[in-house]
Write a structure and sequence with these properties.
By secondary structure, the protein is of the alpha+beta class. It contains 5 helices and 5 strands; from the N terminus they run αββββααβαα. Helix 1 packs antiparallel against helix 2 and helix 2 packs antiparallel against helix 3. The longest helix has 37 residues. InterPro entries: Claudin, Claudin_CS, PMP22/EMP/MP20/Claudin.
């Protein structure tokens, strides 16, 4: 019962991380315009994402345009596009493998080892997808912070951290947590299986010992 609840918790947390990864990949709020110094045009907000950039005017009208070319993006956003797509695929695969592992809750002795391998694979995929997602999110955040405090960069080109980055950190933590849960479950299953199927040591009882002694005495009398 406890192991089943642990699997459900891991699958739920991993599902949240997977959905968050999909949302972060498509959201345009990776870079948000900063209103500092002489840049006081507050009625217009600029969003820059992996696939498009948007201009929102006075919370009423918003226009978005897909990038004409990948080369128009900065190097960090170019790499982030590929890494986030890879992270999305890995998180989806991890979620599906975890579901397959949970479907064989009632396993025979011969399938316990296969079940452990499936759960371990799901856990490793969840951890890998979380790490892959952390790389672009942290990379873009570091670039934004570096440009913000760089006096050489024009004020109009400075950006702030968008909502997609914060959501990306949360999703990555959920994926890594789900992977840790499944790996811990696999370790507990291996211990339970090794303890449950070890043959108990048989000690002879007093009656068996007396019976063997009588048989030995009879065998000696036959030679007399």
């Amino acid at each position: 019962m406890g192991s089943g609840a642990l699997q459900i918790v891991g699958l739920f947390v991993g599902g949240i991380g997977m959905i968050g990864t999909f949302a972060v990949t498509g959201m345009p709020q990776w870079r948000v315009s900063a209103f500092i110094e002489t840049n006081i045009i507050v009625f217009e907000t600029i969003w820059e994402g992996l696939w498009m950039h948007c201009i929102r005017q006075a919370n009423i009208r918003m226009q978005c345009k897909v990038y004409d070319s990948v080369l128009a993006l900065s190097p960090d956003l170019q790499a982030s596009r590929g890494l986030m797509c890879a992270g999305s695929v890995l998180s989806f695969l991890a979620f599906m493998v975890a579901i397959i592992g949970m479907k064989c809750m009632r396993c025979t002795q011969s399938s316990w080892q296969a079940k452990g391998y499936i759960i371990l694979t799901a856990g490793l995929l969840f951890i890998l997808s979380g790490v892959v997602e952390l790389i672009p999110v942290c990379w873009v955040a570091n670039t934004i912070i570096s440009d913000f405090y760089n006096p050489v960069v024009n004020v109009a080109q400075k950006r702030e951290l968008g909502e997609a980055l914060y959501l990306g950190w949360v999703a990555a933590v959920c994926l890594i947590a789900a992977g840790a849960i499944f790996c811990c479950f696999c370790h507990c299953c291996e211990k339970t299986r090794s303890y449950g199927y070890s043959a108990p040591t048989h000690y002879p009882t007093h009656h068996e010992h007396l019976h063997r002694k009588m048989e030995s005495s009879y065998s000696k009398s036959q030679y007399v």
